[in-house]
Amino acid sequence: VQVLNRVPVIWINLQDCAGNSEAFLRTDGPTVDELILEIISLEFHELLMAPSGEHAEQQLENAMTTFKNEYLLFVEGAIPTAENGIYGTIGTSGETYVDHLVRLSADAKAIVAVGTCATFGGIPAAAPNPTGARGVMDIVSNKPIVNIPACPANPANMLGVILLYAMTGELPELDSLLRPKFAFGYRIHDACERRVHFDAGEYVEEWGDASAQAGHCLYKMGCKGPVTFNNCPTVKYNRGTSWPVAAGHGCIGCSEPGFFDKFDRFEAPTPFNPN
Ligand code: SF4
Ligand code: F3S
C-alpha cells in the first residue's frame, strides 16, 4: 500500500465494551501490525499502548499538540449526556466524556465513529437510557464525521476508510446518516446467500427444523436483513469466515439507528410479511 504519509490516529474509548477494538485487531489485508507499523501512526489507544495512567494522559496531550488538525479521531462507545455527563468521566481530572470528546474533536482533522454505540447510541442508549447515551454526531457538529455502525463495526469497513484516507487524503462518499456508501449502500437482504430460498418461499419455521438444516431463509425467525443496510453478506467477519445469517441465526439489525430497541423482539418485520 502506497500512503501519502502515515496517518496520525487517536482512538478513544467511551461508553463501550471495546468490541470494536477487538474487531480492529482482526483486520486482514493489511493485517493490524502492517497497519500500525506502515500505514497509520497510532498515537493513542488505551488497549494497544504501553503507557498507562498519567503517562498515557501525557501521551494524549503530546499527540494532540504534535498532530493538531492532522489526526483522525476514532471514537468507540456512546457518550452519556444525562446529569451533565457525570455517568462517564476519564483521567485524573475527572473530565466528562462529553467534554473529552468535544476537546479532542476541536483539533482533529475528522472523526470516525466506530460501532453502533458511537454512531447512534447503541446498546447504552436502549430504553430507558438512564445515562442519556448519544452518538458522536449528536454532540459534535463542526467536524467531518464518518459513521461505521455495527456491533462490532466490521474491521474491513474501518480499513476501507483508513486506506482511502491514507492513499488519497479523502474521506469516502457518505449517505444521509454519514455512513460510507461503499459499505452501507446495500441491503443485507439483497446480497444474502439465502435469498434464493426467500424468493422460493422456503422458510425456517422452527429452530433446528429440516429447513434450518437445509439453510433456508430465516425471515420467519425474525431476520432483519430486509430492513438493514450493511455489507455483511459480502465482506463477512473474522477474516471472511462467516456472518450471522451464515451461522444460522438471522440478522438482528445491529448496524441500524435505533438498535437495540427497534429490533428487540425476534419477529418478522411486518412490511415484508411473505404471507
Ligand atoms: Fe437472508 Fe434474512 Fe433476507 Fe432471508 S430474510 S434472504 S435470511 S437477509
Ligand atoms: Fe449486524 Fe445484521 Fe450484519 S446483525 S453484523 S448487520 S448481519
From TrEMBL:
Its main location: other. GO terms for biological process: anaerobic respiration. It is found in: Cell envelope. It comes from the Bacteria. Residues 17-163 form the NADH:ubiquinone oxidoreductase-like 20kDa subunit domain. GO terms for molecular function: 3 iron, 4 sulfur cluster binding; 4 iron, 4 sulfur cluster binding; electron transfer activity; ferredoxin hydrogenase activity; metal ion binding. One of its GO terms (cellular component) is [Ni-Fe] hydrogenase complex. Its cofactor is [4Fe-4S] cluster; [3Fe-4S] cluster. Residues 184-266 form the Cytochrome-c3 hydrogenase C-terminal domain. Keywords: 3Fe-4S, 4Fe-4S, Iron, Iron-sulfur, Metal-binding, Oxidoreductase, Signal. Belongs to the [NiFe]/[NiFeSe] hydrogenase small subunit family. Heterodimer of a large and a small subunit. This is Hydrogenase small subunit. It comes from Sulfurovum indicum. The chain holds residues 91 to 365 of 400 of the full protein.
